[in-house]
Amino acid sequence: MYKEVLRPLLFQFDPEKVHHSTFKTIRFFSSIGLGGIFRNMYQKKHLSLERNVFGLTFPNPVGLAAGFDKDAKLYKELSDFGFGFIEIGTVTPKPQEGNPKKRLFRLQEDNAILNRMGFNNGGVLEAAKRLKTNKNVLVGGNIGKNKNTPNDEAVNDYVICFEALFDVVDYFVVNVSSPNTPNLRELQDKEPLTHLLQTLQNLNNEKVKRKPILLKIAPDLTNEQLLDIIDIVSETKIDGVIATNTTISREGIISEKKKEMGGISGKPLRERATEVIRFLSEKSNNAFPIIGVGGIHTAKDALEKIEAGATLIQLYTGFIYEGPKLIKDINTALIRQSE
Fold this sequence. Notes:
Elements: H1 2-10, H2 15-31, H3 35-42, E1 51-53, E2 56-58, E3 62-64, H4 75-79, E4 85-91, E5 104-107, E6 112-115, H5 124-131, E7 139-143, H6 154-165, E8 171-175, H7 190-206, E9 213-217, H8 223-236, E10 240-243, E11 263-266, H9 270-283, E12 290-293, H10 299-308, E13 312-315, H11 317-322, H12 325-338
Parallel strand pairs: 3-4, 3-13, 4-7, 7-8, 8-9, 9-10, 10-12, 12-13
Antiparallel strand pairs: 1-2, 5-6, 6-11
Helix pairs in contact: 5-6, 6-7, 7-8, 8-9, 9-10, 10-12
C-alpha cells in the first residue's frame, strides 16, 4: 500500500514539508492508539534477531539512521515500525536553522535523496529534555558542532553535547563527516580526529558507567584515510564505526538535480558503503563493530552489508522509498537465515 498509494501521493509535494507533515500524522495516529496496529504489522520478534554489541542488547539489528528524527520528537512512535534502535540528531550545542531552503531534493530516477540541511536542530538541551521520558527505546545520540564554531574550538561543542545527552542516550555517534557544514570534514584528518575522540573518551572513562562512542565516517575517504581511521579507533579505544554518511560523489547519478550542492544518500551509495565496510572489517581483522548504512532498499542489500562485516545496519533513504515493510522484510530474512 505504501509504495503503490502513499508514496506517489507524498512525492508530489516538497520533501521537507512532507517530512514535517508525516511526523504530525504519525504522532496523531499513535495518540489515538494506532501504535499497536503498527507494531502488529511491522515488528518481528525472534531470539535470533537479538544482537549484543558494545555492551548493549539490540532487539533486532535494523536501526533508523540519524537525520530523520533530528530533535528526538518522534523516536517512540518510530520504534513502533519495527526498528531495533533509533539514532537521533545530529544535535548541536545551540539551536540553528541550518542552510537556506530549498535544501532537500528527491532524485527519483536514482532512488536517492540529496540534502544540504546543515545540522538544522533545536539544540541539544531540547532533545535531552524529550529523551528523559524514554522508557524502552534504545537510542543513539548523534552529535556535531555549530556552523559558526571554528574547527580549532570544535571539541568544546562535542563535549557540551556529550555531557548534555549522557544520561539519556544509550550510545554516542561523533559526526565529523557531513558535507553540509563548512570545513567539518577536515576534522576527519588524523590529528584533529584523534584529539576529539580522545577528549570524549577521557570524559567517558571518568563516568561511573561509560557509554559506547562511535565514529561516523564519509564514504569518500581514500583507503589510506580508512587505514588512519582503523589506527585512530585502536588508539582511542572507541567502540565502533558507522559506515557511511552521505557522499559528495556524483558518479553514476542520472537526475538533473545532481547539480545541486549537498550529500547524496540512497541506492547510488550502496556499493561504495559496502566496500568501506568490507575494507574496515578485513584490514582491522574485525577489531571493532561496524554499523552499516547506505543504499539499503531491500533485504538483500541489508544481508550484503552484514556479510561484508556490519554487525548492525541503519536505514534512512530506503525507509522513505520502500516504507516500513522494508524493516519487516529484513528481519524476516535474517530469521530465515538463522533457521
